[in-house]
Every structure is written in structure tokens, then in C-alpha cells.
Amino acid sequence: MTATDPWIRRFFPNPDAPVHLVCLPHAGGSASFFRPVAQALTPEVEVLAVQYPGRQDRHQEPMIDTIGALADHVSRAVTRAVDRPFALFGHSMGATLAFEVAVRLEQAGRFAERLFVSGRRAPSCRRDERVHQRDDAGIIAELRGLSGTDQRVFGDDDLMRMVLPAVRNDYRAAETYVCATDHRLSSPVTALTGDGDPKASHDEVRAWRAHTTGDFEMVTYPGGHFFLVDHAPDVIRVIDERLTRPARAPR
């Protein structure tokens, strides 16, 4: 793994890969979540996984609790790191963040080959969610319900004390987010969703269609919010097919 930029992790550096895939984690997540994706896509695609401050090797840095501020930082990091065609992939909160990063990059004249949004409703679909205002037990109950956290973590009090501040911070960012732009992306959008995801109904996922002038597709899998873990080979195949035989985004 290399980390020449605090925001970017390259688990399998490959300067000869024709395309970059910038991956943005879910609330409470870290860049290492995408290590298996990076391994599976090498050598055709080089994965750049975003590391948010306040976790893992950046645990001593102040966290950022708004999507807008995160998007500002990440878009600058992507501009520094990406020197070839690129796509963006975000899961849950990371999908909303990927959209905002794509908006900023398009406004600067850089267009993603494709935006992959996973496990997240469209930016225009708001819910009144306040998980970040719960006590620790309430947040833990939320995490258990989504089945995306290794059950062994819940039995380790020290680890939970380390993880919960980042989770609360990221939920605050996701739950207070308001889509403040009417910008429609030029990049095509692939929306991935689980048919039993309590965080994103089918109608809310289809609403991503309104956020691009490019092609749109919705791919549904059995499962809940972390369907992509259970269906990792299929999700990786979709990414690989769209990036190795892409429909180029209009310029």
C-alpha cells in the first residue's frame, strides 16, 4: 500500500492501468474496506481508496462533519492524484459524497467516465433521520441492524470507543446533507441497490436518474444495506464491465 497523499490509498499501485476508480467509504468506514475491490480489479483498473480523517492512520486528525466540506477536500485530492480517465464509486454516505465530488470536478472541467452509487437514495430524496443524535447504545443498535459491521467488534469495548466517534460524525454529515445544487452530471450513473435495503427504497434509488444527462441504469441484488459484501463478485464484475467497455460520458 502507498499513501503519498493523506486522502488517498493505493493498495495495488499500477501506473499502467488505463483507468482509475476512486472509492469513497460508507459512514464510519475507511479506505481498507475497498482493498478486496482493488485486488480484484488489478491490473485493468487502479483503485484509489479515500481515507477520511479521524480513523485508522488518520485517527488523530479532526473529523469533518459536513458532506460539502468533505467533497471540497476529496475533489482537491482527486485532482492531485488522478492523471488518467477515472470513475467514482461510493457506498451509502460515500455515494452522496461521490456525487458532490463529481459535481465539483465537472465544474472544474474534469468528467468521470461513470459514477457508481451503491446503497444510497438520490441526493434529491430527503429523510428525517437523526441517528447521530442517539446515545451510543442507539448508534450501536443501528449498526447491528444494518449488518455491515463484524459482530466481533461489538464485543470489544475499546474498539467500539474508537469507532463510535467516526460513525456519529459521518451520520451527522449524511443526515444533515441537503442537495444545494441543481447541477446535473454529464457522467453516466450506475445505481446499485439491495432489494431489502431499509436506507434506500427502489423509488429513491431510481431518482438518481434525474441527476445526470448521461445514461442511467439500476442494478438490484438480493439483500439489505450491505448487499455488496454478499454479492462482491457480481458487483466487481459490473464495475469491471462498465470500465473496460465504457460508454463514454458526453463532454
TrEMBL record:
GO molecular function, one term: hydrolase activity
Record Gene3D superfamilies: alpha/beta hydrolase (3.40.50.1820)
Alphabetized UniProt keyword annotations: Hydrolase
Domain Thioesterase TesA-like: 22-243
Similarity field: Belongs to the thioesterase family.
Protein name listed in UniProt: Alpha/beta fold hydrolase
Organism: Streptomyces venetus
